[in-house]
Amino acid sequence: MLHIRNLEEGVELFKVLGSDIRVNIILLLLKEKEMNMNEIAARLQITNGALTSHIRKLEETGLIRVTQDSVGHGNQKVCSVLETRILVEIGTQEETGEGSIFRAEIPVGQYSDYQVFPTCGISTTKKMIGEVDDPRYFAHPDRAEAGILWLSKGYVEYLVPNILPAGQKIDELTFTMEISSEAPGFNNDWPSDITFLLNDTPVGVWTSPGDFGDRHGLFTPNWWFSGWNQYGLLKMLVIDQNGTYIDGMKISDVSTTQLQLDYKSQIRLKFAVQEDAAHVGGMTLFGSGFGNYSQGIRVRMRYSPMEKGNE
Fold first, then answer.
1. pLDDT tier at 94 (50, 70, 90 boundaries)?
2. Can you give the CATH number for the domain in which 78 is found?
3. Which of 73, 50, 162, 123 lies closest to 291, judged by CA?
4. Quick check: is 28 in a domain?
5. pTM for this prediction
6. Could you tell me the residue range of the domain that residue 180 belongs to?
7. Does 158 score more than 90 pLDDT?
8. 190 shares a domain with 137
């Protein structure tokens, strides 16, 4: 999912989508999955020279991916759709006055607790941390620099920074992260039920469709092993006063009202693959320097004053 946090941030994307030709390119790729440049130009009845500029703009905004295929397509540039969902925040809470906002980003290696089982591993952008499939290395000091970690079952838990001003309650929590399943090697069709817990309260389950390694992640280091997981999906977990949502779809009735979070609360976010899940397909978390987004776990808190007498 491509997340546009305000209108100014989305200007270039809106310009790109303002072209009928570029929209038709996306529609064509959605239908055919992937096509080389000659095939696209022929279908749209435009020259390769004209097509090149449109493809470049679509690639620059992260809507499509262009790879070199010297086997099946005769040394052609092959295009495929990279993002199928776009979330645009037209007006932020800061602008509408409905509370104040605190933001933070947690590196994926900065977990406060863990229990992992092989297959598992952890790596920085420069080197593996210890040996693969040995949970002991999740305690290695270098984990603070980690850009990727994976496990077949178990959990990692993060202490979410809560430095809100005194007398404030939390109305909404948003977490965005790049995440996927964990298969031996990789497998794009490898479902896994990943449970999200806040302060040990299960707030919902999302089923990851696979562990993606069919193409190199945009930010994944060049030295990374071609037969391993390369990128994940950007997911947005939101807990507000009405329930819990993944990418806008409600997954439970657990709300911030029920959780009773305020400026004094310790907030612990846990990602778990439980042994009794219907699909025990592991989990991979991508952080800075890996995957398609190069980010840690981004946190957004909307807060407002508590009622008098409840402080």
1. very low
2. 1.10.10.10
3. 123
4. yes
5. 0.73
6. 92-305
7. yes
8. yes
